[in-house]
Here is the input.
Amino acid sequence: MQICVIGAGYVGVVTGACLASTGNHITFIDIDQDKIDRLNNATAPIYEEGLQELLQENRKRISATDDYDAVADSDVVFICVGTPSRENGGIDLSYVKKAAEQVGKRLGERWQLVVVKSTVIPGTTMNIVKPLLEQASGKTAGSDFDVAMNPEFLREGIAIQDFMQPDRIVIGTTSQQARELLEKLYEPFDAPLYVTSPSTAEMVKYASNALLATKISYANEIGSLCKQHGIDTYQVMEAVGMDHRIASSFLRAGAGFGGSCFPKDVRALIATGGDAGQPMHLLRAVMQVNDMQPHRMLELLKKHVGDLKDKHIAVLGLAFKPGTDDIRESRSIPVIRTLLDQNAHVSAYDPMATDNMREVFPDICYTDSPEEALDDADGCLVMTDWPMFAELDFTGMAQPIVIDGRRVIPEEKRTDITYEGICW
Ligand code: UDX
Ligand code: UDX
Here is the structure.
């Protein structure tokens, strides 16, 4: 099929590359010329394991442009533009609306399908996107074209794997023709298809992410209590996770969840609940627990290092998780901000995310190795579980004080240093 992907970000690029690998022709439409140029040279605009190879292998079926005219020749248009948080936690739909208007203007003479893949609050596809497409095209949904909602469940760093081997593919549409087209498109991916209404599909995405985030805050709340009782919370959660109703994933206590999804999606659900007169007590608490974790890291640091003024603190890990260069909502951001507010000197290291973090904190020292960051440091905060950090020797620090936010320092490396885990 001829497919247009609007928005060549983490979601769009992975979607386009994977659909190209099953024989479809992909045209990326974006506003970022650098992304357009990279994609036209079969160069990945973001880091994702396996993405570069996919773009190279399928370069004959992939192109990119800033011109929406490509929509007219496509069978399917995926809208994958960003849906960032607004001040009140609600989502900013301006990019989705703009994309829908631009797509609507170019809908061709034959029947076409417009699929919303961006994470949007329930009701967006049918009450905002569909009317915009009808107004801009002068056509009627259901006969001249149709819409569907198809959320993504991609984890960054392993997004290709998650796209190629999904647990389920969720499709929200009222159109039999849309259902059949998407069933055909996703047939090569051999995963159960869950077909429902667009608003249900929209809610499935939010409910999934909110539950995953809730598991993490639950693990952090229990973990803080376990720490006070000298109990190893990782053993607790290992045994708890043996209950098939619970399962052990997403129960790793640590510095909290970051990324472009969990914080944004939980805040959006809270705001959506607020609009509907629902207090959303549980999800508010999930965010409160998460917001506490960076403070806990700094309290533990100060417990051993004392006043942070003029102290040299090493921050190991800037990406919101390993395997990616993405720093969106990374837990190291509030930690570094507080260190600077308290006049500490920060040396930061991350194998991939340094350039992105330099945009946020241009004035801290970024080192080319973790050892360099640790050299002569009065304390160290481990904020991302990059495997390389498990090999480090901390004895070169002025004071070998290590606060581990991700359970990445092995037992044998904790002996001749002052070591504390955030929840262990
Ligand atoms: C993000 C969220 O992570 C995800 O939950 C949501 O479903 C979609 O937005 P992501 O791919 O990470 O997904 O977004 P981002 O990396 O911000 O990429 C959005 C892309 O859209 C960017 O390449 C941006 O240049 C492009 N864009 C944005 C347009 O093409 N047109 C616009 O008007 C705005
Ligand atoms: C998440 C969802 O997993 C994915 O399904 C959705 O499509 C997008 O959002 P992502 O944000 O890329 O994916 O990363 P994920 O692996 O879920 O980790 C999110 C954050 O939670 C990271 O900061 C990670 O460090 C943290 N985390 C994860 C924990 O603190 N404990 C855990 O047990 C798991």
Q: What stands out?
A: The CA atoms of residues 118 and 421 lie 36 Å apart. The chain has 14 helices and 14 strands. The chain has two domains: 2-196, 197-424. The mean pLDDT is 97.
